[in-house]
Design a protein that fits this description.
Elements lengths: L3 H28 L8 H23 L9 H19 L1 H5 L6 H12 L15 H15 L2 H4 L11 H9 L12 H25 L4 H12 L17 H14 L3 H8 L4 H6 L1 H24 L5 H16 L14 H13 L12 H19 L8 E2 L2 E2 L2 H28 L6 H12 L21 H15 L3 H4 L4 H4 L3
Antiparallel strand pairs: 1-2
Amino acid sequence: MINYKLILKILGALLFGEAFLMIVPLLVTLFYKDAQNDNADVFGLLFSILVTLISALLCRYYGQPDKEAMKRKEAYLLVSLTWIIFSVFGSLPFIMSGMVGTYTDAFFETMSGFTTTGSTIIDNIDVYPAGLLLWRSMTQWIGGLGIAFFTIAILPGLVVGGSVQVFSAEATGPLRTKMHPKLSTNAKMIISVYTVLSVACAACFYFGGMPMFDALNYAMSTTATGGFATHGSSTSFYKSAFIDYTTIFFMFFSGVNFTMLYLAIVKGQLKKLWKDSEFRFYVYMVGIATLIITLCLTFGHSHYDIFKAFRNALFQVVSFVTTTGSFNDDTSNWPRFTWLVLVVLMFTGACAGSTSGGLKCIRAVMIMKVVRNELKKLLHPKAVLPLKVNGNTVSMQQQVTLLAFIVVYLLLCVMTYAVLMIFEADWINTIDAITIAISSASNVGPALGNPIGNTSSWSQLSDISKWLCSILMLMGRLEILGVLVLFTPAFWRER
């Protein structure tokens, strides 16, 4: 039987944290006081903090701690509820300030932030007050490693064994890389890498000419591979090669498995990083995709010289593969063949154990090795060919789970495409519908084509489509199967 009071207790603690985090943009709002805002953003944040605190107190009051270990069912329910509840309360500053017209839009924007998708319904982001801009960026930074993952270090104080179950329910990728026997220590080490990357990115942006406020916001969304920006033109607003290449650098390394990154940087195990088959696949994929698009832009557009083509190609390749969604060029004007390359990158994603979304490179490596083994078996039917990744044997159960994940992922994308073509038939085209579906499921952010491209907002979508995409974002962030299991009868049975 699911212990709902235990879940309420934990949600209460997390809501206290969210209320505390909202104080930061409130202080920034007061610091950047603008008479034109009529205190709407101040009221919106104050009201949101008050409502969140009251809800946290109610959850703590009706909830209760438990000395028993958290069960797997409770962990999956907790993780899904955490994202939903955080988005419900996190959307309040947008709707209560009057800057977003409907709750549907406010929830969509917030879910897009916490899942680090980066899709937006805001057309005029440049006129938003500083406090709301910061809160918008903070949703991505908080969601970067997973809200639940951030709590691993403190969760053992609330429930026995909770951190292990929550990590299993929330962590990305089919395989796990551990570097310390205590999960809380492992989490703290990874969070330290995340924090260092964020601080270093902000410093580079600042010294590259960004104002401090912009540098902090862009750094949070870049290292979270989210893509939110304080300007509608994203990184291209600055028209700076230094800022473009800085963004590329931090997007790329934010797409690397953080455990491997920690071992490489802190422990000096650079050779181990390069020997990792997922990392090598990631590097080769970025290199090949960049080369193809650079050639397409150089010979397909007269106004692209080789240097501009390389810079824009590398930027968009890294942005799409890490599912960041930042842009320095409008890909809707690129040759159509480049769209195919970008769609493959959207689907694949970067490394497991990073802040990126998508299928993950480790699954792509597994698929390639499964195909290779099947081809060998055609020649040697009696051969026993174990599937190994980085020297570790992948069990048959993990291979079945891989197949199930891919099938469900594709089915969800097809279903979303069909719904979009029904409800948005009067203005949307096939390319838009397909890439919106993939973008939501992979937490990428931008779509491809016209009228919704990588530089456009999704404000034209109907409310039904926005809610559907919000649900798909959540499912993509939690590896799909972890959410779908909640809808099975077996999950709700007492035994």
